[in-house]
User: Which sequence fits this backbone?
């Protein structure tokens, strides 16, 4: 029993000596991990806040009646990266098609199709929608001519 207590005391002495010798290293390591954690949390908060602002701007923009303001706002949203950028480009495409500015709509379709932000399934869906819209435009213009 005495030997057991002696080994425990010896272990505690070795452990406390090890901690005293390396206290500065432990504190620096803890501070670095804490700084990395806080930085990551700040970066995540910034991205979520940015996405929330883009979504609010996108949905407010859909309700605006003034076409010039709507186009400029959708252009500014589409220059960002993310989901709402793609949605605003699709809105711009519809507005350009309604205004019969087909070159701008084709350019925006190309930007979406070449985007690396979208999954291949979504790119395929956008390509199909664009193809049908452009075929419809060609048919309507040929019938008028």
Assistant:
């Amino acid at each position: 029993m005495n030997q057991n207590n002696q080994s425990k005391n010896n272990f505690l002495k070795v452990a406390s000596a090890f901690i005293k010798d390396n206290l500065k290293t432990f504190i620096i390591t803890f501070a670095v991990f804490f700084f990395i954690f806080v930085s990551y949390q700040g970066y995540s908060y910034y991205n979520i806040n940015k996405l929330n602002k883009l979504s609010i701007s996108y949905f407010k923009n859909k309700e605006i009646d003034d076409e010039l303001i709507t186009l400029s706002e959708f252009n500014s949203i589409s220059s960002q990266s993310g989901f709402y950028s793609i949605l605003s480009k699709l809105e711009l495409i519809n507005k350009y098609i309604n205004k019969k500015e087909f070159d701008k709509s084709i350019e925006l379709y190309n930007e979406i199709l070449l985007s690396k932000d979208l999954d291949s399934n979504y790119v395929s869906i956008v390509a199909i929608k664009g193809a049908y819209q452009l075929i419809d435009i060609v048919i309507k213009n040929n019938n008028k001519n």
Observations:
- The radius of gyration is 30 Å.
- The chain is about 85% helix and 0% strand.
- The chain has a mean pLDDT of 84.
